[in-house]
Structures are given as structure tokens and as C-alpha cells.
Design brief:
InterPro entries: DUF4270. The chain is mainly beta and 454 residues long. It has helices spanning 3-19, 195-206, 215-221, 322-326, 401-405, 425-428; strands at residues 29-32, 40-45, 51-56, 67-75, 79-87, 89-91, 103-111, 119-121, 127-133, 175-179, 189-192, 225-229, 235-240, 244-252, 258-267, 273-280, 295-297, 306-308, 313-318, 331-342, 355-361, 367-370, 382-383, 394-399, 416-421, 432-434, 437-438, 441-442, 444-453. It has a domain at 67-279.
């Protein structure tokens, strides 16, 4: 190829790449050099058929996430979601450091907002949190060492507690706190507990009872607490996993003045703090999507497609013609983008996820990988791009060059993609997005710029 011809080729290649940012049609567009004997052309195609369904994730880890997620919302598209948080506890010390003349005053749980100040839903209403005594040992599950290890998704990396697990607790609450979640000014939430419960622990410390002699004995006596939202709650709140239960007492100091003190019960570690997330989709297009019925066709949901963190709702996509296209020996892909448009219609207090990722599933629908960022082993995340007031939808854009180029290799053969919230927010939030539609079809498009060698 002559020097002039190479220059013309690179020139037209740059034009084609620029056009790929603006063209949105359903046909091939070819840019060819003006030499009738030219053997190279740059083409753009966005007409790949994308088959879409709704898929429910399973085995979602909930421990060691660093967030106490408590609350309840009722989303107009996907129904009610509730999160309760469980945690093991331990005494700050197992020595009798309560002054001899001390008198028990009260016991309360102190909760603080998470550093991210996460909230979702209507925070203008009064919320409540009830504290219950857990009566069953909180334990982890090691899915990787069981006979079901082949079912483990890529995001399960060791022993954990899954967000659909529940441990028994006493139905009668130790105490309930009500508050207005002014999330950006909220300092702490204090829930006063039953005095008899606090006095019992206070007396055991004073008498050096066996139940407060070491961690194992104490956790046998008090297996943990559960933080449960009220039925009328309207918001989900992210709280710090540094949770304290203060046993408050007073005594007369050596100076003759009354002094306050406290014995503190703390969370015993992030591995045993987790969030149990429940949902009720009755009356929504996804009512039939359950833990046992994990995939719904477009027909079954009337072409309603969602992505919701926490509950594990994802949108599954399959591109059946991509494999055949990539078997073509005389093409080279220059650029591949997956564009996902979501509705610009706002659900008020229910914003979309700030980022999405793509999970790669095998033929058994087990997520076995993530789509990485180009030239990287890190998980690729597509940031939320807001729409505008002239009808342009919100969107997320993925660079699919890695997936497209290797779609026929052992890495991606017989795989599909799941659109989900990015990790770790997929486990610690409940943000929701609805895929936009046009003429009854979801607005999900694969755009490819490629070079033809004729």
C-alpha cells in the first residue's frame, strides 16, 4: 500500500470513529477509499439483535460490607423492599470496671449514619427502627467448600452470610426508636432498650457472672441483635457498622459529685454483621420473578426491564448473531460499545444507580466473570449519564471490545451478559433503573466499528 493510500486509510478511519459517536440507525454504513481496487473499508453496524429477559441473582453476599442497611421502600415499578440488619456483639472488656457504688440508669443502642450518608426513598416521613434479641447463632456459610460449589457466582469469594438468610429473634422488641431521617444533619440515632435487659447485664458484670467472663460465654448468652424497620417506613438508610449498646450508670466520685459512666457492648466484627433483604413484587410486572423462578421473558414482563441493587434484579442480554459475525476472518473490530438507555422519568425519591457493570454468565446461568475494563483485569463500570429535557434518555455506555473480540474463545463461548449495579453497591444499596423502550423494545444497542479486508 502506498504512503498516500495509508494516509487516506487512516484519515477515513478517524472519520468513521467520530461518526460512531453520533450515528444511530439500523443499517450498515461503509466508508471506502475512492480507489476502485481498494481492498479495505471501514464500516459501522448497530443492527445486532439483542434478546432481553429479566434475571434474578442468587447467593448474594451480605456480610463484611461495612454498611448497616435498615429501612423499607415501596417502588412503583418493582414493589416493596425491606432490609433488616443482624450483628453479633461483644463486651468492650470482660473485667469488672464498674465502680462499686454505681447504680444502673438505662441501656440504649447508638447508631450513626454511614460515611456515604446513603439513603433511598422518602425521607420526609418519620421512620422507626426496632431492636430485637437474636435467639439463634449467627453463622457464615462456605459455599465454595460444599458440594454446591459449582453454583457459586464469581462474587462469592469465601465464607459469608447471604442476604436472603434469616436468623431467629424474639418477636418482642427490646426497644423501638422513631426519628426523622434528616440524613445530612443526622448525628446519631439512639434507641432506648428495656431496662430489665440492661440491669441484668449490669448485675452480671458486678457479680462477675460466667456469662460475662469471655466472648464465647457472652455470645452464648446474647447471640446478637437485629435492627428491624417499621412497617410504615418509607426510606432505606445506610448506617455505620460501628454499633454500640451503652449500659449507662451513675456513681458518686471521689470528689463527691455524681458522675456518669457506661459499659459498652460493641459489634464483634464485620464478618458477622449482614443485611437481610426481602421483597414483595405483587402487583408489578415482575411479580412472577422469585428465588425459584429466576428468569422471565420479555413477554412475561410486558417488556418491562429493571436493574435493582440489593434484591438482585438484573436484565439479561443475548446477542445471537455476534458469534457468527466474529467468525468472519476478513474483519477487524476497532471499537465496540454497548449503549443502555434508561428512562428519564423520575420516580421522585428513587434515583438510578450511579454505575452499572456487566456480569458474564455460563450456560447454566451462573455468573462466572465480569466484563473488564479494556486492557485491564479490573471490573468495568459504566457511569450514569443523565438525559435532558428535550427527550434524550439517561444512559450507560460500556466498552465491549474485550467481550466482542474474544466472544468465540473459551473465555466467553456460550455466555450471556447480565446488566447489574456495580459492586459493592449491588450488595449495600437498593437503587433502581428502568430500561427505556421504543416500539415495545428495550433501548439496548451494540455499536461496532470494524475494518473489512476484502
Amino acid at each position: 500500500m502506498s504512503q498516500l493510500l495509508r494516509f487516506k486509510y487512516l484519515y477515513f478511519l478517524s472519520i468513521a470513529s467520530a461518526l460512531s459517536l453520533f450515528i444511530s440507525c439500523n443499517k450498515d454504513i461503509s466508508l471506502s477509499l475512492d480507489d476502485v481496487n481498494e481492498d479495505i473499508a471501514v464500516s459501522f453496524i448497530d443492527s445486532f439483535t439483542v434478546n432481553t429477559s429479566t434475571f434474578q441473582l442468587d447467593y448474594m453476599p451480605a456480610a463484611s460490607m461495612g454498611t448497616v442497611l435498615v429501612g423499607k421502600i415501596n417502588h412503583p415499578g418493582v414493589g416493596a423492599v425491606q432490609s433488616s440488619s443482624y450483628l453479633k456483639v461483644t463486651l468492650d472488656s470482660y473485667t469488672d470496671n464498674i465502680p462499686e457504688n454505681a447504680v444502673f440508669d438505662s441501656i440504649n443502642v447508638v447508631l450513626k449514619p454511614h460515611a456515604t450518608r446513603y439513603y433511598y426513598g422518602d425521607t420526609t416521613q418519620v421512620q422507626s427502627i426496632a431492636v430485637h434479641r437474636v435467639t439463634q447463632e449467627i453463622v457464615t456459610t462456605n459455599l465454595l467448600s460444599s458440594i454446591d460449589s459449582y453454583k457459586a457466582p464469581v462474587y462469592v469469594t469465601g465464607p459469608t452470610i447471604f442476604n436472603n438468610q434469616k436468623f431467629n429473634y424474639n418477636n418482642i422488641a427490646l426497644g423501638t426508636g422513631t426519628f426523622r431521617p434528616n440524613i445530612f444533619s443526622l448525628d446519631t440515632i439512639s434507641v432506648r432498650l428495656d431496662d430489665n435487659f440492661g440491669k441484668e447485664i449490669f448485675d452480671m458484670v458486678n457479680t462477675q457472672d460466667y456469662n460475662v467472663s469471655n466472648t464465647e460465654s457472652f455470645q452464648n448468652y446474647l447471640k446478637g441483635i437485629a435492627l428491624v424497620p417499621g412497617n410504615s417506613n418509607t426510606a432505606m438508610l445506610g448506617l455505620s457498622d460501628t454499633v454500640n449498646i451503652n449500659i449507662n450508670y451513675s456513681y458518686t466520685g471521689s470528689d463527691g459529685f455524681k458522675t456518669q459512666g457506661k459499659k459498652v457492648i460493641t459489634a464483634s466484627g464485620s464478618a458477622f454483621q449482614y443485611n437481610n433483604i426481602e421483597y414483595n413484587r405483587a402487583g408489578t410486572p415482575l411479580a412472577a420473578l422469585t428465588a425459584s423462578n429466576r428468569e422471565l421473558s420479555a413477554t412475561e414482563t410486558n417488556n418491562n426491564f429493571y436493574v435493582q441493587a440489593g434484591t438482585g434484579i438484573t436484565t439479561k442480554i443475548r446477542i445471537p448473531s455476534l458469534n457468527a459475525f466474529m467468525y468472519n476472518d476478513n474483519i477487524s473490530v476497532n471499537k465496540a460499545e454497548l449503549v443502555i438507555e434508561t428512562e428519564s422519568v423520575s420516580y421522585g425519591p428513587f434515583p438510578a444507580p450511579t454505575s452499572l457493570m456487566l456480569l458474564v454468565t455460563n450456560k447454566n446461568n451462573i455468573p462466572v466473570n465480569y466484563v473488564p475494563a479494556p486492557l485491564s483485569n479490573t471490573v468495568q463500570s459504566a457511569a450514569f449519564i443523565p438525559g435532558n429535557n428535550v427527550g434524550e434518555n439517561n444512559k450507560y455506555v460500556f466498552n465491549l471490545i474485550d467481550y466482542v473480540k474474544f466472544v468465540n474463545s473459551n473465555r466467553y463461548i456460550d455466555t450471556d451478559l447480565l446488566i447489574s449495579s456495580v459492586s459493592p453497591s449491588i450488595f449495600t444499596t437498593v437503587n433502581t433503573a428502568k430500561i427505556a423502550t421504543e416500539n415495545g423494545k428495550p433501548k439496548i444497542k451494540l455499536n461496532i466499528v470494524y475494518t473489512k479486508f476484502r
